[in-house]
Amino acid sequence: MKYSFIELAYDVLKESNKPLSINEMWTYATETGKVEKLSSSGKTPIKTLAARIYLDIRDNESTKIMQVSKRPAKFFIKDTSLNEHEIKAAIEKVDKKIKTKYVERDLHTLLSSFVHANSHFKCLTKTIYHEKSSKAVKGKNEWLHPDLVGIYYPFGDFKAETLKLLSVVKENPYKLFSFEIKKEINFTNLRECFFQAVSNSSWAHEGYLVTLKMEEDPGFYEELRRLNNSFGIGVIKLDAENISQSVIVFQSSERNTLDWDTIDRLSADNVDFNEFIADISLDASDNDRRLRGKYDFHFIEDEDATKYAKDKGMI
Fold this sequence. Notes:
Layout: H1 5-16, H2 22-31, H3 45-59, E1 65-69, E2 74-77, H4 84-98, H5 107-117, E3 123-127, E4 148-152, H6 160-168, E5 175-185, H7 190-199, E6 206-214, H8 218-231, E7 234-237, E8 247-250, H9 260-269, H10 271-285, H11 302-312
Parallel strand pairs: 5-6, 6-7
Antiparallel strand pairs: 1-2, 3-4, 4-5, 7-8
Helix pairs in contact: 1-2, 9-10
């Protein structure tokens, strides 16, 4: 007899005896060997688990699973031995943990570490401090500045002779990235966050919206897909405990040309961005291919990520 995703969810919730999110259920199931009992888990098993649970709650009158909170989405079993007061206490404990002291800029180190090591990016980043921007008319520069900018240098992938040839034939081996970072995205703030990323990434080859926490409703995933298809902004979900396991949920569409007017405006408005552009010009033309620019060189390996996340209050 096949072991279903719903049976897995029920067994996990019953054993743990506390409300869990989809990711927490999958982690528990993996650690206890229940995932191995599934006849097939597919390419995106966590999304499959979420979809099966939401459909079971919606369509199955005799479902044994209930959703007990929305942000974050937590689930529990109906025939639990815990009473309503105990369930509420468990949820409040989780909510209290989520209201942490960390700020968005604490996520910069995670993102910088991920994109530096990831084969798609292999880039160096620089934090853009908005408070260093010139004071203009209120609203003029709203949503103009990305949180992080990135540059891919081809030095490690091509020999010097190949790079010279690329220069001769006028092909550009360099790539610029724009990153907008949020602690969490959900149905409430999705459109604002997404269009902020659209607005401040027009200058780059690729633009991304980055988050640590994401709504787990399948409908939310489909809305992200629609926005990605329409506007080309990619989405990255960070994993605070295993940075290398962070996921490019949707890849950005690549622009072949840069928005030079916006680059010039950003350079004039913000000293960090101006320094970033100046550093690229110097490092790209340096014959000895040594990087001297002021980039975010603080990288974290997976083995140190959990401690960093706990120290910052992310987990």
